[in-house]
Amino acid sequence: MFTLVEIFWRASLDELKQGSIETENHFICLLCGKHFEKGIVYPEGGVLYEARRYMQLHINHEHGSVFEYLLNLDKKLTGLTEHQKGLLRLFYEGKTDKEIQKVLGIGSSSTIRNHRYMLKEKERQAKVFLALSELVWKSISPERDFIGLHPSAAMIDDRYNITNTEEDRILDRYFPDGRSGKLKEFPRKDKVRLII
Fold first, then answer.
1. Which of 91, 103, 168, 176 is 20–30 Å from 142 (CA)?
2. Which residues pair with 146 in a beta bridge?
C-alpha cells in the first residue's frame, strides 16, 4: 500500500480536482488520507450516503474545498505568487473584472484581463510541460525515480532529491529488523531524517 504522499503525487489531474481517488474497495481522500469503503452506507444528518457521495461530503465539511486546499499549498508546489493566488480565488468566486478591480484597488479592468491572460498562458505552459515530463519519466528506469513530496512540506530543497533506491537503502540501514521494527540510531543528516 502506498503512503498518502505517494497517493497524492500519483493521482491524475481529475482525481486531484475532485480531492479523492477510487481504489477497488475504497475512496481515499487525497487531502487527509481518510478512506470510505465501497458498499457501506454512511449516515450523516439523518440521511444515508454511499461511499462516493460521503467522500464529497467529507471533503466539503473537513477541508472546505479542494480548490482552497490546493491553493494554500506551498509556493514551491503551486508556483503561484500571493497576488496570483488572490486573483485565482476571486476568479473562482465568480467575480467580474469590475468587482476584482474594486477589491484589489487596480486602476483599470484591462489590467485584470491581462492578469487572466497571463494565468491562461501559465496553464498552457503547464500542460505542455506535463506532457514533456511524462514522456521523459516514462523513459527513466524506476531506480532513478524520485519519491514524492509531502503536500504540506514547507522548505523544499535538495534534501528532497531522494530516489526510491536511496530511500530503500537508508530504511534498510536504519531499520535492520524490518520497516516495522525499531530504529537502530537517530540519523544526523536532515535528508536521512526526512526519509525516516
1. 176
2. 163
On the 0-12 / 13-18 / 19+ scale of CB atoms within 10 A, 93 is exposed
Cα(90)–Cα(182) distance, rounded to whole angstroms? 49
Question: Highest-confidence range of 15-24, 153-162, 179-188, by mean pLDDT?
Answer: 15-24
Inter-residue contact 194 to 159 (CB < 8 Å): yes
Signed CA dihedral, 106, 108, 110, 113: sign only: positive
Which residue type does 122 have? K
Strand partners, 29: 20
Please name the residues in contact with 70: beta carbons below 8 A apart, sequence gap of 6 or more.
Answer: 16, 78
CB 145 within 8 A of CB 161: no
Instruction: Give pairs for 190-193: CB < 8 Å, separation 24+.
Output: 190/159, 191/159, 191/162
Rounded-to-integer distance, Cα 11 and Cα 125, Å = 20
**71-102 pLDDT, tens digit each:** 999 998 899 999 999 999 999 999 999 999 99
| Residue-range domain boundaries for the chain | 4-69, 74-138, 158-195
Report, as an integer, the average pLDDT of 126-153. 74
Class (C level, CATH) for 74-138: mainly alpha
Q: What type of residue is 156? A: I
Quick: pLDDT tens for 158-172: 666 677 778 788 888
- Rounded Cα–Cα distance for residues 128 and 168 (Å): 32
